[in-house]
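Troubleshooting: if your tokenizer reports a length mismatch, compare your output against this known-good record of 738 residues.
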Amino acid sequence: MVMNRRNLLKFLGVTTGTALLSQGTKALSSSFMVGGNSKEQVNKIIQAGQSFQFTPVKTPIPLTIENLSNEQQKLTYKTYEVIDDVVLPEGFTYDVIAQWGDRVGDSRFGYNNDYLSLVETKPNEGFLTINFEYISGKTWRETYEKVIGKSLPFEAVKAIADENQGKINAFALPKTDPLKAKIEAIAKEALIDQGIGVISLKKNAQGQWQRTYSEADRRITGISGLEDGHYLKATGPAIKIFEKEEKLGYDDGLGSKIIGTFQNCAGGTTPWGTVLSAEENIQDQVPEPLMADGSSLDPSVTPFLMNEQDLDGRGNVFGLAGNKYGWMVEVDPTDKNDYGTKHTWLGRYRHEAVAFRAETGKKLAVYSGCDRRGGHLYKFVSDKTIVDPKDKNNSCCMESGMLHGAVFNPDGTGKWVRLTPETPINPVLPSKVQGGLVTLPHSDRAIGGIMQVKEDQAIATYQAKFKTLGDLYRGTYEEKQGAILIDAHFAANAAGITCTARPEDTEIRQDGTLYVTFTSGTPGGDGGPDKGVFRGPNGEMNYEYGWIIKIREDSNDPAATTFRWDILATGGEPTSGGMGFSNPDNLMFDRKGDLWMVTDMSTSGHNKEIKDRVKDGEPISTKSLVGIFGNNTLWYLPLQGNNKGMAFPFAIGPMEVEMTGPWLSEDEQTLFLAVQHPGEAYGTRQNMASEKREFSILTTSGEAFMQTRTVPLGSNWPSKQVNDAPRPAVIAVRPIKE
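Known-good structure output:
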């Protein structure tokens, strides 16, 4: 359903006179929104303990909500200075709760913190669970010794890696080889900085959340179980594959025991107080494709990698089995002995986020997306029925049920297709996706792995050879089901599940509506989105800026097999029908049911200079234009009231970061944010260095003008001290009390 600005307003039930083209913006009011145009107003509202207001921060491009004339926009945005700090509205401040290297239990606070979940065990007290997604190889290496206080043999290993195009198959090295020991030391420290963390917090009388260092504080790292015995567990059909004695592929010898969790990106919190952590880009550390029986490819397929920018393949030296990663991991933050359970019925793919519908008398529905170009949206439906949504025994509902993939139709309808051995082979056609590429389980099942298909005729040949998903996999019925779940993304392509535009978050509103962010419509090496569904506001293909889509299950039933979908918001420039942001990512609802959203523009595009929008006589792509949006941002999108249909910027991140995992405390007076990978591109900012860059900016009505932008080179956040190392950290945003 291609939706332009007028259709969007019609869908939202507002008119151009009261929404995006209005002549006046009503005072913003959300349970966590304080601010006004004067300190006197702010203080009065805070002291009354009521909902509060804020004045939107200034982004690098003009927004329709400002109601400025073209000439005013050109004057106001002629220059712009990017700040290496979290920029908040007047009347707000933030506290750093924890940062990379801080002590957590018997380990440390990890790197590139992502999803956050505060489970409050009593008023103003509880456990904050944090995901640690990945390390930024270059910046991590440059700052490791200064932050952690010890050295690693980076130079010695890199010198050897450089002789082999950056790659070393450390798994094949003898245990006595000194190089293997050096690689183990580096890989171990990097995997410690991934995974999950749990820290205890309490709010003091001044409204600040502080750590209390309880005995339940702990880390679940990428090597948990390797040395400490804290193996992770699993449930569901994939266990049959893990425990199978005769495998076609690699066997780590651990049965159903699992070493660690890594690439932990977004996540979700259950109504009963457990937290699920999403293992996303596991292909960076272990092999993703499989043999036909669901077993792993040899660790040598993903060798240790070390070059100027990257430090990956860290599972190689330890012989980690690839099929044990790419799952949703459940943890009870209040249980100090819980080191995580991977629920295999939820499927293995590049998980980003998870959302739960747990309603009395209905089946449990669990929604998640595969964050890759051409990735799918999935729903798990339990066999069991929910009796009490807050009962911790509900976790067992994820041990039996069925995984479904979403098929989107351009007319706004859709259906859920079961992924079982009986599911017919009906592959996605390359001609139907942007980029013309589909990846399927390899047609030679003896060698396993995957194959790229670029011609529709090859699909017809594939269908002639395989009739059902069960034909693609080996073993008993249950083993085939396990293999399908382990190979979920490629099996879903074979079953005709819609290729989408990088689904990065799934959130359920109080009324049961599912909201999904599709971050980027640009195709790539993994595939691309459906041509009939994912287009820009004016029908554009390869639309980089992204969308927020809402899905309503038919009859509002979590177990429904059909649904309807609509576009809620479209990224992009206001003059072209966008709402002023690019690449929407994590979502959050406040108590009123209004929406918060953070953006996920790739670091390489931040503030990238754009002097001319035309190259060789053709307009440059939307992906090439992302630099105009500056740093990543946090937005507020009211879904009701006079400001319905608008988007308001609340915060701007420091240099080269994502702000992820927004989470409101129960009293909605504190907003927690994870600030990820500061200085990822330029590293440590040296001597407060900045440079001037030129940008071709458009007014909201499309008139072009040039902007001179001052851009810091690298970051010193969060200390903001000259030449200090940038460190990922979690912050708590709060109104200033005077």
